[in-house]
Amino acid sequence: MNDPNGLVFVDGVYHLFFQTNPEGVEWGNMSWGHATSPDLLTWTEHDVALRFSEQEAVFSGSVVVDHGNTSGLGDGDAPPLVALYTSHYEVGSPRAGTQAQSLAWSTDGGMTWRRYPGNPVLCRQSADFRDPKVFGHPTGWVMVAVEANHRQVVLYRSDDLLAWEHLSTFGPLGSTEGVWECPDLFELPVDGGPQTAWVLVVSLGAGGPAGGSGTQYFVGDFDDRTFTPLPGDTGRWLDVGPDHYAAVSFDNTGDRRIMIGWASNWAYARRTPTPTWRSSMSLAREVSLRRSPGGRPVLHQDPVLPDDLLQHRLAVPAGVRSTLTLTTDEGRDPLVLTVDAGADRITLDRSRCGDVTFSPDFPTVVEAPLPDRDGAVDVLVVVDASVVEVYALDGALTLTAQVFPSAPLTTLGVDAA
Q1: What is the residue range of 248's domain?
Q2: Which of 91, 179, 180, 214 has CA atoms 20 to 30 A from the CA of 311?
Q3: Which of 3, 131, 251, 384 is catalytic?
Q4: Among positive and negative, which fits the CA dihedral 212, 311, 351, 27?
Q5: pLDDT digits over 406-415, tens only?
Q6: Residue 98 belongs to a domain with what CATH number?
Q7: Which tens digit of pLDDT belongs to each residue from 278-302?
Q8: What residues have CB less than 8 Å from 234, skipping those under 6 apart?
Q9: According to the UniProt entry, where is the signal peptide (predicted)?
Q10: Annotated catalytic, 3?
């Protein structure tokens, strides 16, 4: 599995669709897998939702609840679910070598899907036009997608999810080393008050904060046509670790904005030492916008946590360096997190934590500066099998990393200096 797709909340159930190869653990035969959860913690996998064909691979996209049946695809019993996804046309297709946006819909709560006979619904005659994220807006439906190689986000609108008109183009800006993918655009209150700002999220295939792929975001304004970042905003990293990519948010969650990312990195995802499965998602995270001590709105991420995950909280006083070490029951395969509130750095050392030799691109030590703060540094560390997630400064900084120890990491030790 890789990118999360079609995140949507319907009738008390969270739906996670995702890029998957239904025929193997290597990338290929791209299709939409499907899993559901009542609580974002316990997931049940279902049959493949949108399967590849000889002429079409099913790349990333999104799902919306068409409450007003603007598409006309509902059956009168409940609002249809409408998926917009990228058709990657293979050799043998009349559109071979291009990518365009197609539509499918469901009238049984997302369990079965029908492709729209008029697909694609949006085509630019481009080889790298992909990853539509659609949301409802007072002006109609809005889509953000990418021209990946141009490092641009393109915005469209529609009255019915079928016919689309171009609004504007954003970028390049911020990190442009890798191709741009998997955008998202949403509005959030600032500090929980009446003022709001818009957040544009975009992932990139290379040039991430720890090497390889990563995800950046911009804060600004959306005036119904154009996204404009705040003055001086050239982007921030959504996660400073090596293993958090393609994060997008759920549709239809009301006032909550919940995101999930792919917990891996394109630099070595195909070579991780997991022969019977490949890749997983991050924990779901509720996000909010809060002003930093310097006055700029910054995304904070708060994980949705079950009680049975190993987790530890610590507060590092100003000027103090604390080290947290995770090991197996036998004290093997140490994973070492150092929070230096004097040097304003956070470091994760996974160089001795199990298998690190499977790829020369697998960074064994990850270091990042701590963002603006007042005083102490609060840290939450969560271990979910082979994924470790670090949340510092109430989620203003997150760091996600895979580890492959010989046994579960179950023991915690903390030293302060």
Answers
A1: 4-303
A2: 214
A3: 3
A4: negative
A5: 999 999 999 9
A6: 2.115.10.20
A7: 999 999 999 999 999 989 999 999 9
A8: 173, 174, 218
A9: none
A10: yes
Q: 3-class SS at 118?
A: coil
Q: Token pair of 346, please?
A: 């956070």
Residues 21 and 153 grouped into a single domain: yes
Number of domains in the chain: 2
Q: The domain spanning residue 399 has which CATH number?
A: 2.60.120.560
pTM: 0.97
Whole-number pLDDT of residue 307: 76
CA-nearest of 110, 130, 131 to 49 is 110
Taking the alpha carbons of 67, 162, 100, 222 in that order, is the dihedral positive or negative?
negative
Low-confidence ranges of the chain (pLDDT < 50): none
Q: Is residue 367 classed as helix, strand or coil in its secondary structure?
A: strand
Encode pLDDT of 235-253 as tens digits: 999 999 999 999 999 999 9
- The type of residue at 76 is G
The answer on 195 and 69 residing in a single domain is yes
Of the three residues 269, 303, 337, the one that is the final residue of a domain is 303
Tokens encoding 386: 């082979």
